[in-house]
Amino acid sequence: DAKTTQPTSMDCAEGRAANLPCNHSTISGNEYVYWYRQIHSQGPQYIIHGLKNNETNEMASLIITEDRKSSTLILPHATLRDTAVYYCIVRPGGSQGNLIFGKGTKLSVKP
Amino acid sequence: NAGVTQTPKFQVLKTGQSMTLQCAQDMNHNSMYWYRQDPGMGLRLIYYSASEGTTDKGEVPNGYNVSRLNKREFSLRLESAAPSQTSVYFCASSFSGTSGEQYFGPGTRLTVT
After folding, report:
1. What are B12-64's pLDDT values in tens digits?
2. Cα(A25)–Cα(A21) distance, integer angstroms
3. Do the chains contact at A32 and B58, CB–CB below 8 Å?
4. Three-state secondary structure call for residue A72
5. What is the three-state SS of B44-57?
6. Which has more pLDDT, A74 or A95?
7. Chain A (17-56) residues lying within 8 Å, Cβ to Cβ, of chain B
8. Which of A91, A92, A88 is closest to A102 using CA atoms?
9. Phi, psi (rounded to 5 degrees) for A107
10. Which chain B residue has the Cα nearest residue A98?
11. A12 to chain B nearest CA, in Å?
12. A38 has which bridge partners?
């Protein structure tokens, strides 16, 4: 699987957009980008995924660069409840089994 | 929908004791997974079941057994608990084994003394 690189931590003011970057420069053509988050002591929560087009759902937007070497997860109006560790995961389409979670980015939303 | 439920939430075992962690999902998913998470580390896959009647080893299967009881339920058994199995255990499910969209339970916090 392609590896991902994320900043260790980020801060964001409540009500502002949180932009979480992820570098996946060795991504292959059939690999999807997934984003999960883990709020303290809870199970990971699926947020969004994409292949090459930008995606949006009720939780977030995912922007993937044209060369697919990096992506950004956008939380449009961060709240205190969005404080969590955010994981960017690259996974081949059609592969079986697990997700490989790295260390992620600790996002702290501050009042 | 309750999603993915796990029991118990907390458990303390003595070395050598056995126990079974229970997991159930009500999303009609075909695939189920057991992960463990140690402090400061990412999740590691123990076992998974791509569909009812099948199970496969993950990254760290030693010391564990699993049973896919039916489509809804997937249990994890520790036959002889060891301190190295102190961890938080998460169960997850997905529509298919190839889906990266997995839904996780709240976890079981296990301490082995």
Report:
1. 999 999 999 999 999 999 999 999 999 877 889 999 999 998 999 999 999 99
2. 12
3. no
4. strand
5. EEEEEECCCCCCEE
6. A74
7. 32, 34, 41-46, 49
8. A88
9. -95, 125
10. B45
11. 22
12. A85
